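Sequence, please.
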């Protein structure tokens, strides 16, 4: 058998071309995020969930799977919408979780999750959230809270669920405007979210508020939010 030897210069050229080619890219490992969500006026109704990257690792969390009755089976899939990342201007997924319970519609808006994917590490990630509740008589919107999502399902199950709803605590403050005192009273939930808006569904006006001293009404107006 005759062996044909390649010139040394050609072998060197082939080697250099292989090294100088496109670098090998490895996809980010897929990291589903697990959570438990508790909704309702009364505590106790818990929905288990998992966020997935349906378009592949590193493409963003665009699909939510929900176990509505706690039997370990995901009965519902919810696809995410999109939003523009203010830094890159690219369109990224905007996951929202919607649960119907007790005649109300509870929505958890994970609006900042599309910007934290490259930073996820360890067994959890903290992301900013908004949430709202809608009934025939009321719409309320809470903003600027934070929640923890887990890459490990067992740790998500052991952690406290993400609570949307009461109990709330008062968030108060005061300042002087000339000779008058300006008093602010708001509501915060256990996630640190502050009520930004509350409207009556019947007339779309702000909820009415009274300030009383004994039997005397000092202020009778509609609350202003925002």
């Amino acid at each position: 058998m005759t062996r044909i030897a390649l010139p040394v210069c050609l072998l060197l050229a082939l080697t250099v071309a292989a090294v100088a080619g496109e670098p090998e890219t490895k996809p980010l490992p897929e990291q589903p995020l697990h959570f438990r969500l508790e909704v309702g006026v009364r505590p106790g109704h818990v929905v288990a969930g998992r966020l997935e990257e349906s378009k592949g690792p590193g493409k963003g969390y665009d699909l939510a799977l929900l176990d509505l009755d706690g039997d370990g089976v995901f009965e519902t899939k919810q696809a995410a919408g999109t939003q523009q990342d203010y830094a890159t201007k690219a369109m990224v997924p905007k996951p929202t979780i919607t649960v119907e319970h007790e005649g109300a519609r509870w929505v958890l808006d994970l609006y900042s999750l599309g910007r934290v994917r490259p930073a996820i590490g360890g067994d959890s990630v903290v992301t900013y959230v908004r949430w709202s509740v809608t009934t025939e008589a009321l719409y309320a919107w809470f903003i600027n809270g934070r929640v923890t999502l887990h890459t490990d399902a067992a740790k998500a199950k052991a952690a406290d669920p993400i609570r949307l709803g009461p109990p709330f605590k008062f968030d108060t403050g005061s300042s002087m405007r000339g000779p008058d005192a300006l008093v602010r009273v708001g509501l915060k939930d256990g996630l640190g979210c502050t009520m930004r808006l509350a409207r009556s569904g019947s007339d779309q006006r702000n909820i009415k508020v009274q300030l009383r001293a004994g039997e005397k009404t000092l202020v009778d107006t509609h609350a202003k939010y925002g």
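The CA atoms of residues 105 and 134 lie 5 Å apart.
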